[in-house]
Amino acid sequence: MLKGRDVISITDFKRSELERLFEEADLMLEALRGGRGLRILEGYVMVTAFFEPSTRTKLSFQTAMLRLGGSYIDLPPEHASSRAKGENLADTIRMLDSYADVIVIRHRLEGAARFAAEVAEHPVINGGDGTRDHPTQAMIDLYTLRRALGRIQGLRVGVLGDLRYGRAARSFILALTLYPPEILYLTSPP
Fold first, then answer.
1. Active site residue 132
2. Is 134 an annotated catalytic residue?
3. Is 56 annotated in the active site?
4. What whole-number distance in Å separates Cα of residue 176 and Cα of residue 1?
5. pLDDT value at residue 127
6. Whole-prediction pTM value?
7. Catalytic residue among 106, 132, 146, 167
């Protein structure tokens, strides 16, 4: 389904693809809750390349990789890497790509994840770039609605927060275009 595919923007996905992803997530959740280990990523290595601070997103990816039997490596802070000596993003991505089977990137610049996907041979997952995209957060938000309420479409949905620069809110609103709500409330501080 997503094997070998980049995850850059929620707008790159069709509703049918998200539905299939949610079905797979249900099966994995059931297996994990049943005490059965999932070793489906055994032998695979993920690199988390976070050029911005993150707690939840980074730990979520790392934990998921471990629970699925894989392992991860983490890009060291800038002061402890070749980036401190002026290494550019393309060279950093090429180096990370040589060590891992998938790259999860978070970057302050819009388009950094798409650029990384163009440079890397392995799949790239956008863990948030610029003020534009956070596709995995949008997927998680949709999945949470589906699990909690049994559906996504036709709901009354409110989005509160930084709607101008908040990449998670923006991605979620775009994701809702695949599941039109009955009413969408948008509230942002002045």
1. no
2. yes
3. yes
4. 21
5. 98
6. 0.92
7. 106
